[in-house]
Specification:
2 helices; five-stranded mixed β-sheet; 2,3-Dihydroxybiphenyl 1,2-Dioxygenase, domain 1
Length: 156
């Protein structure tokens, strides 16, 4: 597609994100407790376990039990999945839930997206090691930026 060509659709936005998981019995409670998702639909067949997770009636995440190993940062594919919230208070509320669950954090507490950036959040892993981020667009001006000039969300 050249720059002079345009997308045939007049509107484009991210729909839902599908994630492969190894154990839906671990992943489903994690995503429901941490993100407040509701189960919109679920497949319970032993050979085809899956769950559609929604928020406010909108499908956000689909979980598919079809992996036999945890997330690898060494292969092409998903780098991380990010969710925006309204405020740093919201970020810290999610952080508290994650700490109660014993989540694996990439950094200690809220970090800025870059030196002097107002946006920032927390970086952590789900039960399969999939890298996740919760951030707010403002309020992190005083937070450290562990990657210096590089985007914090890029090299963790």
């Amino acid at each position: 597609m050249t720059q002079s060509q345009t997308l045939a659709a007049t509107s484009l936005q991210t729909g839902h994100v599908g994630l492969n998981v190894t154990d839906i019995e671990k992943s489903l409670p994690f995503y429901r407790e941490v993100f407040g998702f509701d189960i919109a639909a679920e497949g319970k067949d032993d050979h085809q376990r899956w769950a559609f997770l929604a928020r406010d009636g909108k499908l956000v995440i689909t979980l598919w039990r079809q992996s036999d190993s945890s997330f690898s940062t060494a292969t092409a594919g998903l780098h991380h999945l990010s969710f925006q919230v309204d405020s740093q208070d919201d970020v810290r509320a999610v952080e508290a839930v994650l700490r109660e669950r014993g989540a694996d954090f990439a950094y200690e507490g809220v970090v800025a997206h870059g030196e002097g950036a107002g946006s920032g959040g927390i970086y952590f892993a789900d039960p399969d090691g999939i890298r996740l981020e919760i951030y707010a667009p403002t309020g992190a001006e005083e937070a450290p930026a562990p990657s210096g000039a590089a985007p914090t969300c890029g090299f963790f």
